[in-house]
Inverse folding.
């Protein structure tokens, strides 16, 4: 059992050595893209919510 655990961690170490890690500039650029995308999506969902709420209120007030 201990041999399997030791073997597992050795394989994990080997695989982590193969990983290509992002540079600081790539990481900052990706983070900015994610934040801007979230801001746009949040604004879109908020706008849809306002429009749909208004429509539902108009429909319910006429019934």
């Amino acid at each position: 059992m201990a041999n399997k655990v030791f073997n597992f961690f050795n394989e994990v170490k080997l695989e982590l050595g193969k990983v290509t890690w992002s540079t600081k500039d790539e990481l900052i650029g990706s983070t900015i893209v994610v934040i801007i995308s979230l801001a746009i999506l949040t604004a879109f969902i908020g706008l849809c919510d306002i429009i749909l709420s208004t429509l539902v209120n108009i429909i319910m007030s006429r019934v």
About this structure: The chain has a mean pLDDT of 95.
